[in-house]
Each structure stands twice: as C-alpha cells, then as structure tokens.
Fold these 3 entries.
Entry 1:
Amino acid sequence: MEDPKSPAQPGEPAEASAQQPGATSATQPSAPATQPTKLDEAAHSTPHRRGMFRRRRRPAAHSATAATSDKSPKAAVALADPDTAPPAPAPAAAPAAAAAAAAAPAPAPAPAPAPADPPQPTIPPAKRAEPLPSERPPGAPEDPWTRFATTADRPPGRLRRATRTLGRSLIHEYALATYASLLLAVALTWPALRYPLHTLPQDIWDPSRQAWQIAWGGHILITDPVKLWQSNAFFPEPNSFAFGDSLLGYAPAGMLGEGPLAATLRYNIIFVLAHALLALGGYALVRQLGAGRTGAAVAAAAITYAPWRLAQEGHLDIVSAGGIPLALAMLARGHGWSLRRGLRSDRRSIGWAAAGWVVAAWQVSLGFSLGVPFLYVLGLILVIALITVPLRWWRRPAKRPVLGWRLLVTDGLGVVILAGVSALIALPYFKVHDGSDGTAEINFFSPPLRSLLIGPAESRIWGAPHEVPRSSLNWPAEMSLLPGFVLYALALAGLAFSIWTLRQRLLLLIALAGTIILTLGTTFFDGRWTYLPLFGHLPASLGLRIPGRLMLWTTILLAILAAGAVTEFVRRVEHWSEQRIPPWPGPWLRLATLVPLMLVLVEGWNTTAHPVVPAQPKTMRTVSGPMLVLPTADLTDQTTMLWSTTRFQPMANGAGGFASARQAELRRNVANFPDAASIDYLRSQRITTVLLLRSDVAGTPWERAGDLPVDGLNITREDLDDAVIFRLN
C-alpha cells in the first residue's frame, strides 16, 4: 500500500503530488511541501528561466496563477477554470466506512490538466499614413527635396537608336568577318592594288579580255541594251559576247569610267573583292552548318586560298566563286537548317531565303563554267527536300508545318526567277555554233589522279618542288589540282575527330568521292557514266570542257570536314581550360587553336606575276570601224579588245573565246595584206579600215606591210607616228 504522504515522483506537478480532498480526515494535518529534485532545480535555474522567457512570454494572468499555486494548492484550484476544477469534498461518513476507506489502497493521483492559455488580445491594424499630395498647392515654394529625387530617363530618339544599331552592326560577328576577309584579300593578292591602273594579275591576255567584257557590259546597258550580245569584237559574228563567260553580273561596275585605264582599275578592284567575297561566303556557310568561329575561319581560308586556285588567278570567272557558298549559307539560314542541329522551324526567315535565291541568280550571271555545276547542286538539294519534307510532315505531325506556306511560296518564286535568268542568259550560248569535238577536248583536259597531289607554279611553297611532276601533265595550268596538304591532313583528322556525327561524316565522305570522280573527267572509266552525261552534251561556249574546275566542290567538302576537326579541338581546349585556375585559356593555348589557320594561309602564299599592261595607241582613240587591227594573234587580240574600251569600235579582232576556227581563217586570209585577195576578203566581211601598229609588227607576217605600195589596190593609206591606216572604201 502506497503511503499517501510519499513525495511526488520526479516530473509530476506539485498539485498532483498533494493529497486529494476526501482521501484523509479533516483532523489530519496537511502534507509537508515536497522536496525539489535535480530536474526541478535544473528547470528552475536562472539560465533556464532566462532562455524560457526569451522563447515565450506568458500572459500576466497565467503568471499570477503560477505564483498563487506556489503558495497554496487550494488557492490554485480556486483560481482554476471552473470547468476543470475538482469537485467539492463530500460530508464525513460513518466510522466504519471511514476505516474501510482508510484500509483500501489509495488510487494513483491523476495529473491535473494544464491550464488553458487565455485568448490573446487583438492588435488593431496599423493605420496607414495618407499619401502625400502629388502636386503642390498653387503659389507654394518648390520642395527642396525634389532635387534629390531620381528622374525618369528619356527614351532614346531616332538618331540615337540608329546610332546604337549602327554601332552594334559594326562590331557584329559577320562585320568582323568582312573586315578580316578584305584585309586577307588585299594581303594575299598583293601587289594587285599596288599599281591598279597599270598591271593585271598573272598575265595580260585573259585578264585584258575579261576587263573588256566588264566594260562592254556596262557600256551597252547604258547606250543600247538590245545589242548586249552583239559585242564590238569578233565582227561581224553574231552573239559574239557569248563566246565565253560573260561576267554579266559585273556590268553595273562597268558603268563607271571609260577607257583602258578605268577598265584595268576596275578589274583589279573586282579581283580583290572576289577573293574577299569567297572567304566571307565560305565562313558563312561553314558557320551556318554548325562549326565554330575558328573552324569556319580555317574552312574559309582553305576554300579561298587553296593552292590549285593560284593557277586560276588569270580567270576572273573562276576566281569569282563567292556567290556559291554565300547563296547556300543564306538558303540554309532562311530555312532554319543546320548540319549540326537539323531543321529548326523557329529559325526560319523568308528574307534570308529570298536573298539566297537572288545571290544564286547573280552567281549564274557571271558565267556557266561554275554556274552549271551550281545549278546541278541546287537541283539535287531541291530533289532531296521534295523527298524529306513530306516524310517529316507525315512522321511528325506535332511539328507541322515543316516549312510554312510563305517560305514555300518564296522558294517557288526563287526557283522560277533563277531558272528564268539562267535560260535568258543561256539562249545566246546555244545559238553559237562551234565545230570542235567536245569529247576530244574533255579527254585532253581531264586530269589524272596524281594531279590532286601536284601544286601549281604560282605556289610559293609547292611551285618549285613540284616542277618535275607538273611537267608530266598535258596542261599544267588546268591540271595542278592540289587543294593543300594541310587541308588533306585536317580533313583526314575530321573523319575520326569531329563535331559532326558519324553518319554526317560518312555522307560527306561519299559526296567527296563523287566530286573527285567528276573532277577527273574521262580519266575515271572514260567518264561514260559520270562527267559526259552531265556536261558532255552542252555547248563548248559554256566553258564546261575543263573538268578540273570542279575542284571547287572537292575543296568545299574537304573544308567542311576540316572545320569539324578544328572546332572539336577548340571545344576540348576550352573544356580543359575551364578546369584551370584561372579558368581561361592561356596565350599558348589560344595560339595552338590558331595554328591550323596559319598553316592554311602559309600554304596559300602565291608568287603570281603582275605584268604591266601595254599602253593604248593614240590612234585607237580616234579611228572608227568596222576595222581590223594588225598584227592579230590569239594573245595580242585580247589586249586589242582592252584598247577598244574608249570608243568600242566594231572590229574583227577577238580571242579567248570559242570562235577559234573562224579567227584562224581570218588570220590566214589576211596574212599577205595588203594584196588584192586579202582586201577582197576584208570587204566581204564588211571591214572598211585596217590599222597597222608599227610598234608590234616585228617578227610577224605584217612586218613590211607598212612599206609596201598600195597603188592599183583601190585603197588609201595614211601614215601616222605610231600606226598606218588603210581605208578600204
């Protein structure tokens, strides 16, 4: 039996340990106060109380109740909630009942319920201050504090917005690429602009004729556009302007200036700009495909300054290939397509697509030597798009539309415009009849496979070392097709180490093999199933009988593979540099990423000659036609065509085109001029004047023509300081 006077257990409240009313007699003294335990001492220690008070403040009523309970348990019960207070004690019972109750075991004291927290007083919401008036009363002085207030910035005006836009455009990535392309073009074609009025690159023959072509296009479009194809040279042959690539796209430049000096200056400027445009177009194409900046720069330099192109510096129609990669880049950008990221509908742009078709038409207008292969490539891309776009539309309905109707309309109009421009320019070429055997010419100019490893004579690096193997080629100028050993190495590395996927690399490799086969012409199984079906049936005037010029496409594919390797190398360098402290590439790492670019540029270093153009004879500025200028030959006639840019007199002279049979007949019939037979022949050709240049007749059949008598020939003769004029009428 538990003693009711035993002290309370640790942790029990004092009220629970007190004797319950009715359990003892009224005469029994009250129980002594319980002794505090160690836990109670710890709970009532000063630090503990301070911590408790910091955590929670008790209300004043609760504190008073606690103080009363410490003095008297009965007072605590009296102050408690009447709902939870214990019942009043019962009256005294009989002695027997009291004894039985005393003998029975006392029940365990029940813990007193914790007093409920009184309701917290409601705090009234803070009264918001009334806002200050936004305007001061009339007549009040100015508030001095307004001087410290921030004022709203004025929106920029039109001039400022235009200035900012111009400033951003001047430092844009492609603006910087344009600057770099121009600087490299000037440096790597030097000294083309050293004496631009008096020199021409590589030689004075083909560049003189092409300078005349640009001048003629600008002149005739201003004076009489209907006679565009009836040039003043090759008189009286019709459609004589179609005897070669017309460079018609440069005709607007031909409207500026007149005479040989202006034509020479114009040619040199266009020559440099053509290199810059090709570099910019190559950069834009490879960048659009997904390569990085360094990789795109390497590809642009490899395409523009490949060693094989140094042998073509005298052919502006071959040098002017910049519209090809630029148009492809614009079309890819307009359709939101990238080799690395695929087709993205959010990147579509009708403007870029339209610009791509316009640039493609302009490129075709420069000539069909590069224009026809370009049209074949665009046709192949169009066929692939007609197959893949419907499949994508059918397999991925959630991503419809694939292109959008506006872009489809733009493409349709672009194809129509390109086809129309090409057909209009090609009509005169199909009217020109050439009796030469096209297959025989293709066989003659088809290069062997080893020509892909032979550099041209104009290469400073490979010119002298490759002199012996170059001498074994039938026509070294058109068969030295080395794109660069550095480019070969980078492209080979790109097959195994690249940002392009394995599938993409295999497709590029297949396309590369196809372009090499076409470049070899009839060397690859006689070209029966390759080159001849594509180009053998076209007129010779289109300039497609030299297969080696397709090396441009081989170079572009090699450059794309090389750009993948360089971009992956730069990416890994940047990833490795992020682990360094500080996390950026050091100067040696930055230099290492530029080594491929420097090697490609060094391999494109040239030794191209820039001979002085012969001065125009004074008589060429005054004599009228139709006329024949003697001496006449395949090379000198091209310079004569340049001299005619002052007045554009009709003349029988002409060379460099595809009327070699007719020109050979002309020179054979006038070899004994002046005599009766030659005079009759010239009159039958409606030639009324013959101009003999004294300074150029040495060593020619007309060396003594200026001293022979003309009595009895029914012609007149006029002796001048630098020439002799024979009038046949």
Note: Confidence is low (pLDDT under 50) at residues 1-34, 36-106.
Entry 2:
Amino acid sequence: MSCLAQTLLLLLSGCLVLACVWRARRRHRRQLARMAERERAALILQDTLLQNLQGLILRFQGVSHRLPPDSAEQATIEAILDQADEVLAEARERMLTLRGAPGDDGPRPPNRA
C-alpha cells in the first residue's frame, strides 16, 4: 500500500470516528432534552393533581359544615377528610422526595419512619 493510500485511509478512519462521536453526542443531547421535558410535564401533572385534591378536600369541608354536628354523615365525612389529608401529605412528601433539593443529582429515597 502506498504512503498516499495509507494517509487517505487514516484520514477516512479518523473522519469516521469523529462522525460517530458527533452522532453519539447529538443523540445524548436529544435524550437529555427529552428527559427534561418529561420531568417538566410530570411536575406539572403532580402539581395539578395536588391542587385538585386540595380543592376536593375544601369542597367536602364546606359540605361537612352544613351537616348537623352529631350526625353519622358528619362523622363519615370527617373520617374521609382525615384520610384525604393524610393522602395529600404523603403525596407532597413523595413529590419533594422525587424533586430533591436544588443541586441534587437525582431523586432521594422516600423517608420511611
């Protein structure tokens, strides 16, 4: 093989390697952008869910105040509201766990007592 052919082969090989590296980096950037968009969408959905749950709790509290204080319905709604408050608190805790603190590298495990 002549020196010119070897040089051309080496240049072509180098170009091929550079093209592969460029393509891999480009694909990685697209994946990062896609993951960031999914995370933003998930956070919006979580916020919406929590706000809607809080709205439902407030509506039930309004109904509860219109019932006779010692009625069975009042006691049932109060029990449901207590459970809803627990669900809301747990959901908020899990969201904070998933979001992590600013500067964290990723999600933290749930805090189990």
Note: The chain has one domain: 3-99.
Entry 3:
Amino acid sequence: MCRTDRVPTAGILWLALVVIMFVARSIAADHKDLIHDVSYDFHGRRMATCSSDQSVKVWDRSENGEWHCTASWKTHSGSVWRVTWAHPEFGQVLASCSFDRTAAVWEEIVGESNDKQRGLSHWIKRTTLVDSRTSVTDVKFAPKHMGLMLTTCSADGVVRIYEAPDVMNLSQWSLQHEISCKLSCSCISWNPSSSRAHPPMFAVGSDDSNVTYGGKVQIYEYNENTRKYAKAETLMTVTDAVHDIAFAPNLGRSFHVLAIATKDVRIFKLVPMRSDRKESTSTGPTKLEVQIVAQFDNHNSQVWRVSWNITSTLLASSGDDGCVRLWKANYMDNWKCTGILKGDGSPLTSSSGQPTAMSTIVGSSVQTSQNALNGMSAGRYFFPPLDPPRAGTRYGHLLPPSSLIEHCDAEPIQPQQALPYRLSSRALLPLPEAEGQ
C-alpha cells in the first residue's frame, strides 16, 4: 500500500512514495493432519480449510486483522481434498469433496428461535452427491451468472455438473451433465467470463500416470444448440501431471488466459478463431488458437498451486521448493518473476543479503498467512478474491498495492524517494466565468 504526496513546483510534479511493509501472520489451524486446500469467500473476509483429518474449518477475519475459527466439523469419512465457497448471492454455502467418493454441500444457518441458539450460526449438510465411484478430486461452483451450479471431477475421469433448481432448497440437486474425459481428473477451473461472446467454458487437468502421451489439459465449451458440453481443445504440449489450473479473470479481453501448475508454471493464451465462429456454434465448439506465452521452471520442483489476483495482472505459484513466486507481464507481454516469498512469508534474500524484488512484497500479509495455513509440504498458495466495489473500504488494504502493478518492472523504490514527473510547460488557461456573474 502506498501513499502519494504531490508537490507541484515549476511545472514538475513530485511523487513522494511511502512504502508500508506488512508483517506475515502465522495461524495455528489445529488440524490433525495435512491441510489440502484453503478457500476464500467472495469478499476475502472468510476462509475455509480442509484436511486429511476429515474435517472442514471456517475462519472469520476480525476488525484488527486476526483470523478466528468460528466453525469446525467432520465432513467426510476420508481425506477432504478441496473446499470452495458459492457466491454470497446464494447465501453462505460451502462445497467439499473427498477420497470417500462423495461431494457435499453445506449451508450456514443462523438461529432464529428464542432459546440459547438465537443469533448463533451453525453449518448443516444440505446434500451428498454420490454419483462418483472413485475419489472426488475437485469441486467448483460455476460463475454466478450461470446460476447455482456445482462441478465435480473424479479419479474415474468423469466431470459432473449439478444444478440446484431452487436456490431456497439446497437439498435438491439434479445432475445436468456427465462428461467423460478418459483420463483421471485432478482439477477443474471455470472461465469466469460473463460475456455473451464467450459461451460457458471450463478446463480440466489430469494427473494420470498411466498415460504418458497426449495432452493432460482439456477445454470444454457449452453449445446452445445441442445443450451439451463438447471438447474444444486439448493442450497437447502438457504431458506431465497437472496439479492445478486457473483461468484468469476476464476484464474485457477477446481471448482467455489459463495458468497451469505441473512440473513447472505455464501460461497459455486461448484465442477464439473468429472466422469460424458462426459455423462452430451450430456444429460444435469454438476453435481455439493455443499460444503458450510463458513457461517457468524456477521452482525446480513440482508446482502445486497457481492463483490470479482480481485484476489478472499478477499470478502466484507455489511448489515443493517451499517458495511462493509472483509473476507479472510487462507492456510487451513478457512475463517474469517479480517477487519470491518463503514459507514463513518473509522475502527470499539474495546472496548480498538484500530482499529479492522487495517492491513486490508489499501488502502480502493475507497471502502469506494463507500459505502458512496450507503447510509447506503441500505447497499451496492463494490470492483472496475481492469485491471491487468495496475497494475503498477498510478492506482496501487487501488489494494488490500499486507497487505490485505499476513498479514491478522498475528498480525497487526507496521509501521517501521523490520521483519527478514533468507536466506540460504550457500555462493553464483561466476557466470561463459563469453567465450572469
């Protein structure tokens, strides 16, 4: 977070930048086994964690920035792989998936009776989805403009999409689509674009070790005419096990950006072929031109998580090297590492003892506490999602600081350093007087 002081002198605007550093905060999660996943709610004020101890915990952030566990309960009879929040438009709803071959939907209920439970909240199971015959490896809610829909993928290679026809009755879910990917599935990601020019799309990754050929990432797109999902593309260059995938938030782009965590970090650009658009919508999915725009092996190990910030300008990745690395593209779309964090949240120092890419470490308290929750052996890392209209509120400090976005390609800025910015040398013309004055 930066404060900018403007001092106009003789046609020069001086920008005094004051960089405020945040201290990493470690949270004692009190799980009895490895934490597999952490998920923020839409506003970034609540977290949910899941573990091999078969439980899910919900954490709320207080006014002073501390995280407190407000709910904890056993959810499954096996390791819980993933947990995710629904959009708050549908209430406080969680979904979890497990090695026990099921996925579950949970809803927070606030007591309304006059007894001791009045005003207190508790979580109840609304439904259990039992269609999978193998471990359910990932669960994701679809973008809110599609309604309340839930997607699961399983080790049996099947992606299942469920819909709640009545959002007021979450005990009723219907299986809308069942898609066979023919490879063991490990992760899924929805394209968040709500543009009418982009039909609903999701990507699924595979960690199938029995298949050493062919692409391990498949892209599926919804066809309005057939009312089914069809494979639009397979990323044939991704042949190693995929641990995580993440579509970047689409802020008006005509193409899609997909990050992949495998033995390295890869960023792909998926460009719809406009010349084939009319034909493809009637006969099949849109043809995509696949371009790999970045590939990094800096982790020197397996990469377990990739996560975008809210503006899709910064990508975080984490791996078995015990570090979180931040990636950003410059104006020429050249990606490079702009910051490295160790597992305890401190910046990785160079041989000279100076922090590496110090300007990118600003404002990392929430992110680093996130990594501490996940545990170093799992190598997980996430950006909290933010509600853009609330950026000016007390939660504004969660936004990526300007030093991350504007100055990551420049030399690190020293505190209190004044930077000149020359204004136009032309004199300002006086404002016209209002009529009648």
Note: The chain is about 5% helix and 40% strand.
